[in-house]
Amino acid sequence: MRQRMIDKTAKAPTRALGRETRHLLLTVTPGALWILLFLVLPSVYLIGVAFMTTGPYGLPQRPLSLDAFERLAGFGFLGWSPGNLYTLLRSLGQTLVSTVLVVMIAYPVAYYITTCRARWRPLLLLAIVVPSWTNQVIRSFGWMNLLAPGTPLSELAVTLGLISPHLGLYPSNFAVTLGLVYNFLPFMVLPLYSAFEKLDVAQVEAAQDLYASPLRTFRHAIFPQTLPGLLAGIVLVAIPAFGMYVVSELLGGGKGMMLGNLVANQFAGGANWPLGAAGAILMILATFIGLYVMRRLGKRLGGGEQVVI
Amino acid sequence: MKKQTLRRCLAAFWWLTLAFLYLPLAVVVLFSFNSANSSARFADFSLRWYHQLMGNEAILSALGNSLVLAIVSALLAMIVGSVFGYGMYRHRRRRLGGLVLLIYLPLVLPDIVFGISEMAFFVQVHEWTGLLSPGLATMIIAHVTFQIPFVALIIYSRLVGLDPALFEAARDLYATPRQRLVHFMLPTFKPALMAAFFLSFTLSIDDFVISFFTAGPESATLPIYIWGAIRKGVSPEINAIAALMIAAVAVAALLSLAFGRRRAR
Questions:
Q1: What angle do CA B173, B175, B176 make, to 5 degrees?
Q2: Domain extents in chain B
Q3: What is the value of pTM for the model shown?
Q4: Is domain B57-264 annotated with CATH 1.10.3720.10?
Q5: Which chain B residue is nearest to residue A37, measuring alpha carbons?
Q6: Is the CB of residue B28 less than 8 Å away from at least one CB of chain A?
Q7: ipTM of predicted assembly, 2 dp
Q8: Whole-angstrom Cα distance, residue B227 to residue B245?
Q9: b/e string for B50-68 if b means 16 or more Cβ within 10 A?
């Protein structure tokens, strides 16, 4: 048996290699081609659109120019206006705030799950994940129901003097933050949980034996060990939050617009494809930064595949 | 003593988080039974909005579109993606960095960029060739694109967990490639293939943004219909469809729990 294998490789190493390569191509090509043709090519096309001029109906046309980027920075027919810049800053701010909030909620939750009995843990994780299986539109709609004018939560906010009477908590930037946290919490809990599960408890106990305060125990014994999970979670939360469309569209109103809405509007109502494409480039850049971080992370942890799922 | 208070605080925080996660969904379900047309006041229990749903042609056709899209795209993605995952596994010793990047791209690219670039691309291709006019076909193409990576990764991780000797055994017993496929690979992969199919199916049903931008006038799915209804002005009817979709998710959750338990035993 073994003899046969050796014989085979010894006789025709080059032919075997060729066959293997053919096998690789045969299996991988359909999927790779599909993604290349229907995602990479369109993305490249979109990037190209950003460097074209806006023609009639907002469609791209030659000559090539940087008009779209100037428009994105706020330079229009009527001089400079800060609208787009505000949108961009708001997207960054919302991403930052919601990511921080998600981390703050996810840490205790992930830790709590690991302290429960092993047979309950899958159930608890499922409980965290299930809401995200419902449609994004429906989830935001639920928050619209909860935060509309006249609802208990809005009334409470009125009583506390947070909003003026007869207004609701939505549409507002607050509602968008809430929606983002709601949407992305599971993406942080899962990687953090798997980090906590692998936690070396001996280090924590050592810290406690040395009378380290809980804060110091966390900082020196727990935090470094959960860092990979945290970083993976941040990538999984921050990138889609930065490109959010549905939540900010439904819960934000005109003053809660984010980059995703700005981009989408250029392809629907406002129709200025190059401007929209220029905005999309920012999101693609953010994505590649995230991918890079992920890859570095994967290398450090050995075999990056498991990090994502 | 101190440890116990910490644990109590953690438990309290856990239940608060769960309330936060389930409150919006509970409200949707509750108000789907509201007899009044209001999202602030629950008047009386009634099934009136569900009755209205049954007669709504647009919703029924949207449901049909959602199902066709999900089933066709999940089947295609299952075939293409699992072959891809197998190829990645078989040749995992080689440098596949580029392929891995290709797999991650659909996973990390924001929906909106994904949807818009496909829409712009399809419109351009349509202008040049007359093919790919927006509709179910373009939506299926788009959905398969984001499903392939999930399927490939599921199959890949399943294969990595297998004993490599199994493959050699099949080969050593002089099984032909066809026999290997029918008697060894398919039975071994059946659970993973099923999981991949259901995940793709759920991803497809769950998707709004990508569908929204690649849809044609006739191919609205349920989420697209709900989106339109919300934009036109909130009607309690939306609560009823949304509640039904939440119920479907709850059933899926129970099923996955049952399957998980069975496998654990």
A1: 155
A2: 57-264
A3: 0.85
A4: yes
A5: B145
A6: yes
A7: 0.85
A8: 14
A9: beebeeeeebebbbebbee
